[in-house]
Design goal:
By secondary structure, the chain is an all-alpha fold. Helix content is 70%, strand content 0%. Helix 2 (21-50) packs antiparallel against helix 3 and helix 3 crosses helix 4. The longest helix has 30 residues, at 21-50. It is globular, with a radius of gyration of 21 Å.
Length: 183
């Protein structure tokens, strides 16, 4: 029953995002990942025990985060493609045309990103990583609220300033192409 409910939920999630087959594939992809994870968890637990891997080790947690990140990014590839054929073509290109030189030769900047965009993206990733690590240690909220009042307000106002500074709103912001505008 749980798998049937998950299947229906993720199918509806895909249909809710749009009327193309890529959206249905996006929903079914995530639902399938969750169902496979649930199904194979006992096997994975036996494998970890056999390999003497403790779930609390930092490198294992990092591996799990990176694995999940990779699966979610691939789901986003399906979601953002214009069709299932395009998604399949991009998938083939991921493995057929791998050229690590594009990370250093400036090619990425021809795709619509400039240096400030990359810097802001890396800063945002760094902030998210630090806040996640702090939250896992003692609880970020607890840490912030146990600081002296001026520091606490500085952190909170700095966070608000970062959202405003790095947010999507600006002179060229147009809310009309929002994905759910047609509903």
């Amino acid at each position: 029953p749980a798998y049937i409910a998950l299947f229906i939920l993720w199918l509806c999630n895909g249909v809710w995002h749009g009327d193309g087959l890529q959206y249905i594939a996006f929903g079914l992809y995530h639902g399938t990942l969750i169902m496979l994870g649930m199904s194979f968890e006992p096997l994975f637990a036996k494998g970890r025990a056999w390999a003497h891997i403790k779930g609390s080790e930092w490198w294992w947690k990092l591996f799990c985060v990176l694995r999940t990140f990779a699966f979610v990014c691939y789901g986003e590839l399906i979601f953002r493609s214009s069709s299932l054929a395009d998604a399949w073509g991009m998938t083939k290109q991921l493995f057929a045309a791998w050229n690590p030189e594009v990370l250093a030769n400036g090619f990425l900047f021809t795709l619509g990103l400039d240096v400030p965009d990359v810097v802001v993206g890396l800063l945002a990733i760094g902030v998210l990583l630090v806040s996640e690590l702090c939250d896992r240690q003692n609880g970020l909220r607890t840490w912030v609220y146990t600081r002296a009042l001026p520091l606490r307000w500085g952190i909170l106002l700095g966070g608000i300033a970062a959202v405003v500074l790095f947010g999507i709103y600006g002179p060229s912001y147009d809310p009309t192409p929002f994905i759910y505008f047609k509903f």
